Amino acid sequence: MFKTRLLTVFLVVFFLQTAIAQTDSLLLRLRSLPDVVDVTPIRANTLFKSAYVIMVDQPVDHDKPNGKHFHQRVFLSHVDFSKPMIFVTEGYQADYAQNPRYTEELSRLFGANQIVVEHRYFGKSVPSPLDWKYLTVKNAAADHHLIVGIFKALYHGKWISTGISKGGQTSIYYRYFYPDDVDATVAYVAPINFALEDPREELFLKKVGTDEVRNKIEQFQKLLLQHKKEILPDFEKRAQKVNATFNRFGLEAAFDQTVLEYPFSFWQWGHSESEIPEQTASNETLLKALCLAVPAFTFSDAEIVKFEPFFAQANAELGYYGYDVKPFKEWLKQKSYPNSVLGPLNLPVHYSAVAMKSVDKWLRKKAERLICVYGECDPWSASAARIENNPKTLKVYSPKGCHTSRISTLSEDQKTAVFERLHDWLGLSILVNK
Q1: Is the terminal CB of the chain with fewer CB neighbours within 10 Å at N or C?
Q2: Which of 321, 342, 363 is the last residue of a domain?
Q3: What's the N-to-C CA distance of the chain in angstroms?
């Protein structure tokens, strides 16, 4: 019995020492990679053996590699060098990737390694001085190309790029510029817009759901605006609880925009008809229901600054959506509420659809090994990638799904189609059929 216990202890210590030695070895290898300027170990999810925050040196302008540089934040979660790599192209900041409970859906399905790349100009990945003209889809794609080139020296398995929403867009742009860098791409809820205010989202909101629900939403918006004077003080108090201010637009205009945003957010995030108040509801109930879908701080100064890089991109290349103000104009403070004003102050709006039209042409004719997942009721699906006639790709809509649609929310038949396509392209089988 004593010998058995001793052997057990020995084996546990041996495997622990082996794991520690492997981790130390990986840390040394990571620090020796080209363009890696810092590596910090962090706590890993139980799916992985180790995890790291890595800062990678990047040119601000990839057309001028000898010019100014900045450091881009990358999160690596390691399982094994022989396993696949899930390459997540975030569209915004990536603080969440430090949470040891975080894993990407594909990482779980394939038991894979995982890299999350924070988008340039967001979070800790901001050049100094900040020059907006280098925040382009081309430069962002070049960022990802450089990072994949660095880590392919260590990870020789299959590579699958992926992203959600703006990150999904980013994964598509990356494949457009560098189609052979990875073996396949799964883009979630990724729109491809063709105008500063693409009309397709607005048309979608006039058809989604039932006539009854859409009418109920419009009447709720009118009720909020009709009672604006009484509701505004409580709206401001809600915002103040999170130290939100409205110096950029003023309190009333911010409230108007919050009300105009309601239908898009309602459908985007899968809210329920039962949340829409009746016409006899109190002002307190009206405000509570509004802020459940669109928080009071949404158009506050701090929130606008937080998302300035996104609107800089939307106003230049990505496009966005607008509001139909006609049913509400008699109660609105302003004649129009363009989302383009959410961009950086003193940065002129010069939108061009050239980049998105080029991406669209590639998607329809040349893209391959690409899967796009959308939510049937998500307004962003109005401008979904137009790949339905491209046999080398697959597009699926999660039934009644919203912006949280993933492979896991698909029907069983849709999941089977996705997994079969990935197996055909990659030769990989999933660990658990979810």
Answers
A1: N
A2: 342
A3: 43
Q: Verify that 217 and 93 share a domain, yes or no.
A: no
Strand order in the sheet with 393-398: 36-42, 50-59, 69-78, 113-117, 85-89, 159-164, 184-188, 370-375, 393-398
Q: State the total domains in the chain.
A: 2
Supply 80's token pair: 């094994």
Strands 85-89 and 113-117: parallel
Same domain (yes/no): 376, 319: no
The encoded tokens of residue 333 equal 């403070």
Residues with Cβ < 8 Å from 115, sequence gap 6 or more?
74, 75, 76, 77, 85, 86, 87, 88, 147, 151
In a domain, 4, yes or no: no
Q: Are residues 219 and 152 in the same domain?
A: no
271-288 tens-digit pLDDT = 999 999 999 999 999 999
Tell me what the pLDDT averaged over the chain comes to: 94
Please check whether residue 301 is in contact with residue 248, taking contact to mean a CB–CB distance below 8 angstroms: yes
Q: Are residues 405 and 364 in the same domain?
A: yes
Closest CA to 27 of 48, 46, 50: 50
| Domain of residue 112, CATH code | 3.40.50.1820
Contact 42, 51 (CB under 8 A): yes
For 389, phi and psi rounded to 5 degrees?
Answer: -105, 10
Question: In 3-state terms, what secondary structure has residue 16?
Answer: helix
**Residue-range definition of the domain harbouring residue 178:** 33-194+355-426
Please tell me the predicted confidence (pLDDT) of residue 431.
84
Of 292, 310, 342, the one marking the end of a domain is 342
- pLDDT tier at 4, thresholds 50, 70, 90: low
Contact 315, 342 (CB under 8 A): no
Question: 214-245, pLDDT tens digit by residue?
Answer: 999 999 999 999 999 999 999 999 999 999 99
> Are 306 and 420 found together in one domain?
no
